[in-house]
Amino acid sequence: MTRLSQATFGSLPPSVHRPAYDRAAIRTGIVHLGIGAFHRAHAAVYTDDVLGSGDGRWGIIGASLRSPETRDALGPQDGLYTLDVRDGNGESLRVIGALRSVLVAPEDPEALLAAMTAPDTRIVSLTVTEKGYCHNPATGELDEGHPDIRHDLAEPGRPRSAPGFVVEALRRRRKAGLEPFTVLSCDNLPANGRTAKRVLSRLAELRDPELGRFIAAELACPCTMVDRIVPATTDDDRTRVSGLLGMEDGWPVMAEPFSHWVVEDDFPAGRRDWPGATFVRDVEPFELMKLRLLNGSHSTLAYLGYLSGRETVADAMADPGIAGLIRALMEEEAGPTLPVLPDFDLAGYQASLLARFRNPALRHRTWQIAMDGSQKLPPRLLGTARDRLRAGAPFGRVALGIAAWMRYVAGTDEGGRPIDVRDPLAGELRALADAAGPDPDRLAAALLGVRAVFGDALPAAPACRNAVTDALRLVMAKGASRAAAESV
Ligand code: CS2
Question: Would you say residue 317 has pLDDT above 80?
Fold first, then answer.
């Protein structure tokens, strides 16, 4: 089968949208770290629209910080790939042209640094997931003991971590008399721009106090809220999309129709009005809303669903107890903690989330969302717990989400099968769970003691300890599905 590429995309079926601009004429304005499915189905699409509008300055060079897989798939395709937008009403295919090339950082860190220090590069954007910031999720501060950070301090000219690359590139730009690029975090972290800036300034300061001061004073790191459900692409997806294209695409991306991007308007080095994105002065209310409603529900669905044998989010939503619990979590616990956004229909957003989770055309695995819970729990569920506690209000549904995570990281599902727990703290969590044994009171106490996740204040509050321990007793006695039904 012919491979999708610059030379072949002209013969795609007419129903497939494709770049109408001259790809050879575009320049690179954006270097993106973490070129996974999410970026390719979200910001890269907005940027493709910019290129389509005639402004050719914003082509993207993508970089993988770990594996060569994306480069190996997209290299032979000249960076072209298909976006497959799907829901119960059907699907539409669009070939995206914004990605000019993909670099693999560990193979050639110098090539990535060269792209980041090129004069045309105005923005370095990031989707490196929560753990890519090398921070302590409970405090938001740089984890100075992180192995990649220790490496990047010892060998700053050959960095490994995203913060290490950004700091080294900013140092080189400064030395060359070039203005800094803007750092655009597109990860699901609260105040993601401020978190990025805190981590970057501290790493720079550890390298050289003067560089630390420069970054603290000069670097713009706008906050963003990113929202689009993009499950990992499967082999079935590849085969189906290639069949529809009539040519092979090694790595298409699957997404829902919904897409939202809210960006803090702080781009001293220049930006484009990405069509469809919303530029605002303060992103925080949008971030909180999205993290606590969408992502908090997602993680709760993932743990309850996985434990009860549900493979995908839509499967988990087919369990009426779990679906009811998610609705109650949003409407009665997370929703009331959110700042009021004038002109925003909160009830409508909550209802739309339930429909998005039910999207029958996406196979979004509960196991995928369950990954990295130690990093995800603080912004998604613990902020709600903290605010409810402060207000003297109950949070039994959030506590059930936390308890399901505890049951999950203990490493066996309800059928006694081992769980492949992927988490930077997996070893530590498993050891604590093994030492605690099958007693919910001991397991809850042991895991609430993990300070990198829970901090100090939450575990010290009797109302929090009781809520989580009660929920874990219920999950362990009755199973996740019944526990959800009884907690609605
Ligand atoms: C998900 C998110 O994998 C996960 O943890 O909760 O990727 C989620 O799909 C996106 O944030 C939706 O915008």
Answer: yes
Rounded to the nearest angstrom, the distance between the alpha carbon of 225 and the centre of ligand 1 is 12
CB of 295 shorter than 6 A to ligand 1: yes
70-79: pLDDT as tens digits = 999 999 999 9
Cα of 275 to ligand 1 centre, how many Å?
A: 22
Ligand 1 pocket member 298 (CB < 6 A):
yes
Both tokens of 254, joined, read 């699957």
* pLDDT digit string, tens, across residues 452-476: 999 999 999 999 999 999 999 999 9
* Cα(234)–Cα(311) distance, integer angstroms: 14
With a cut of 90, say whether residue 373 has pLDDT above it.
yes
How many angstroms is it from 26 CA to the middle of ligand 1? 31
Q: Which atom of ligand 1 is nearest to the CA of 299?
A: 6
| Pocket lining: 188 vs ligand 1, CB cutoff 6 Å | yes
Ligand 1 touching residue 39 (CB < 6 A): no
Q: Is 249 in the pocket of ligand 1 (CB under 6 A)?
A: no
Q: Which of 38, 313, 349 to mutate to test the pocket of ligand 1 (most atoms within 8 A of CB)?
A: 38
Residue closest via CA to ligand 1's atom 13 equals 227
Domains of the chain: 9-280 (3.40.50.720), 284-487 (1.10.1040.10)
Is any ligand 1 atom within 6 A of the Cβ of residue 365?
A: no
367 CB near ligand 1 (under 6 Å): no
Identify the residue whose C-alpha is closest to ligand 1 atom 4: 369
Q: pLDDT digit string (tens) for 139-179? A: 999 999 999 999 999 999 999 999 999 999 999 999 999 99
- Name the closest-CA residue to atom 8, ligand 1: 229
Do strands 90-96 and 81-87 pair parallel, antiparallel, or not at all (unpaired)?
antiparallel
- How sure is the predictor about 404, in pLDDT bands with cuts at 50, 70 and 90? very high
pLDDT in tens, 38-97: 999 999 999 999 999 999 999 999 999 999 999 999 999 999 999 999 999 999 999 999
Given a cut of 90, whether residue 267 has pLDDT beyond it is: no
